[in-house]
Write a structure and sequence with these properties.
two-stranded antiparallel sheet; 198 residues; single chain; binds S-adenosyl-L-homocysteine; 2 strands; mainly alpha
């Protein structure tokens, strides 16, 4: 596939992402926050995700920079990338729908926060982060440039590994034994095999 076609696919995925997230963002702002674990470091990791998942690949598709890292991907690689982006959007959409008003861009507990354990959350505790890994993977496969392609997954890794323990501690503080029991039944981003036998 040509770089232009790949750029259009990437751009459409970003537009779909915005269309799913923006209404949620507006709604979430209306619900009061009662506890949080926000930090400068978390904000920085989120900012790096915007750079790695959006700014860098966008600049690449516009300007071709950094040209030294360009390569020609096989059609199989590009198709796999499209499939990963499709899976990302589907999981991202479902996770938002199921988490509903309990969602926050940062680590926050909202008024009347409920512990969601249904839908994708029945199998994994962090389906939205599973979707981000798929996003990073999709970008790595469809952006035909080593640097701009891998920037996404590198920033997702940074956000995930610095955030997930803090988030789980916050959930444990809020929901106590319920979260403990829930954690034993679920995987973090990949379902436990035993989950399907329930
Ligand atoms: N880590 C989850 C949610 C990401 S949004 C996922 O990947 O799907 C981050 C917010 O979700 C956090 O501020 C936390 O308050 C909330 N959250 C995380 N897991 C939750 C759950 N199982 N039920 C309700 N809220 C949850």
């Amino acid at each position: 596939m040509s770089t232009t076609v790949l750029g259009i696919i990437w751009g459409l995925a970003i537009l779909a992402w915005v269309a799913i997230r923006m209404p949620r963002r507006r709604k979430a702002k209306k619900r009061k926050v009662v506890a949080h674990q926000r930090s400068l470091w978390e904000r920085t990791a989120l900012g790096l995700c915007i750079l790695g998942l959006f700014v860098f690949p966008f600049a690449y598709f516009l300007s071709g920079w950094p040209a030294g890292a360009n390569y020609r991907p096989s059609i199989a690689q590009s198709l796999l990338g499209v499939a990963a982006l499709g899976a990302f959007l589907w999981v991202f959409y479902l996770a938002h729908k199921q988490l509903a008003d309990n969602w926050s861009v940062t680590l926050e507990v909202r008024e009347n926060h409920t512990l969601v354990q249904e839908g994708l959350y029945r199998y994994v505790r962090h389906p939205m982060y599973s979707s981000f890994w798929l996003w990073g993977l999709g970008q790595a496969l469809i952006v035909p440039n080593m640097a701009a392609g891998l920037a996404g997954i590198a920033s997702v890794a940074l956000l995930y590994f610095t955030r997930v323990n803090k988030e789980e501690d916050m959930m444990r503080n809020q929901f106590g034994q319920d979260y403990e029991t829930y954690s034993q039944k679920t995987g973090r981003i990949i379902p436990k095999l035993t989950a399907f036998q329930r």
